[in-house]
Design a protein that fits this description.
By secondary structure, the chain is of the alpha/beta class. 36% of the residues lie in helices and 14% in strands. It has two domains: 137 residues, Rossmann fold (3-Layer(aba) Sandwich); 153 residues, 3-Layer(aba) Sandwich (Rossmann fold), CATH 3.40.50.
Length: 322
């Protein structure tokens, strides 16, 4: 049970690595009442009225960008989408100058996705706006990790002691890294599975409690949760597995393979899916899948993050001079 006195004191949300177990639990608990808002006829509260949320995405995104936009709007914030492809970035403007320009326009939050690891941290050193990392290079995707954990806890009632298997391209996955930090802090038993070339060599030094298994059938035995990662063709310049067919044969999730897991196993996927490669359609759309619920939960979790950051960084009201 979360202690009532715990408060979220962070200026930014850059990663799960630097959050405490209590911080993560507070975000998850705060997201629950926001999700109940979705059942109302008017899915909106005035919490962030007058605040501005800027979405600055240097990489393509559908789910994350739309989820943040909906989260902000449901909190009554103003939202601004920056189309990087048609902005001053194309004229050579630096990331820091872009952010300072947005700050000058009184942006309270800047949600950034960037192809370079550490870009959100860099911005946090130069602007006073709250920076939210929506995915940076191979580093982290903290809000995806949080919504995955929220989904697990909602369905299973807990995270501690659950066997969670993360399958696929661990090496290039910022989603995997955020899940690893969050799940291990909450006491889950995490197993990583994928081709040896797609699992970082030093991962056992960073997470000594995590098990590594290269055989998928063995990895998912008695699994409570299987989180299937997308094969990131756009990031693989090294040709780290021989062929798509071989990857699908050895690491693709299908009905026959799923029999090794528990009968009530949950199937997660951060999307977008490569159907027929890392997951078959009957599994993606089947009874065990909570993939669409992850998308819904993402809005609630991002509402919780915006709310908690706004509370943590609100300035105390000054009394009028007498």
């Amino acid at each position: 049970m979360l202690r009532q006195e715990h408060k979220f004191i962070h200026k930014h949300l850059l990663e799960l690595q630097s959050l405490s177990k209590e911080d993560i639990e507070l975000i998850l608990e705060t997201a629950r009442p926001f999700k109940t808002l979705f059942t109302r006829s008017i899915k909106k509260v005035p919490t962030l009225r007058g605040r501005t949320v800027v979405l600055l995405f240097y990489e393509p995104s559908t789910r994350t960008r739309t989820s943040f936009e909906l989260a902000a709007k449901r909190l009554s914030a103003d939202t601004v989408n920056i189309a990087v492809q048609t902005s001053s970035v194309q004229k050579g403007e630096s990331l820091i100058d872009t952010a300072k320009t947005l700050e000058s326009m009184k942006a309270d939050f800047i949600v950034i996705r960037h192809f370079y690891s550490g870009a959100p941290y860099l911005l946090s050193q130069y602007v006073s706006s709250s920076i939210i990392n929506a995915g940076d290079g191979f580093h982290e995707h903290p809000t995806q990790g949080l919504l995955d954990i929220f989904t697990i806890k909602e369905k299973k009632g807990k995270v501690k002691d659950l066997k969670v298997v993360i399958v696929g391209d661990i090496l290039h996955s910022r989603v995997a890294r955020s899940n690893l930090w969050g799940l291990t802090k909450l006491g889950a038993k995490v197993v990583l599975c994928g081709p040896p070339t797609l699992i970082p060599l030093d991962i056992d030094k960073i997470f000594p409690q995590v098990e590594i298994e290269y055989n998928l059938d063995k990895a998912i035995k008695n699994a409570d949760v299987i989180n299937i990662l997308r094969v990131q063709f756009e990031r693989q310049l090294e040709h780290l597995f021989p062929s798509v067919r071989e990857y699908s044969l050895l690491y693709g999730m299908n009905k026959d393979r799923l029999k090794h897991a528990k009968n009530d196993v949950l199937i997660l996927h951060p999307g977008p899916m490569n159907r027929g490669i890392e997951i078959t359609t009957d599994i993606a759309d089947g009874l065990h899948s909570v993939i669409n619920e992850q998308v819904t939960n993402g809005i609630a979790v991002r509402m919780a993050i915006l709310y908690l950051l706004s509370i943590a960084n609100s300035k105390p009201k000054k009394e009028l001079p007498k």
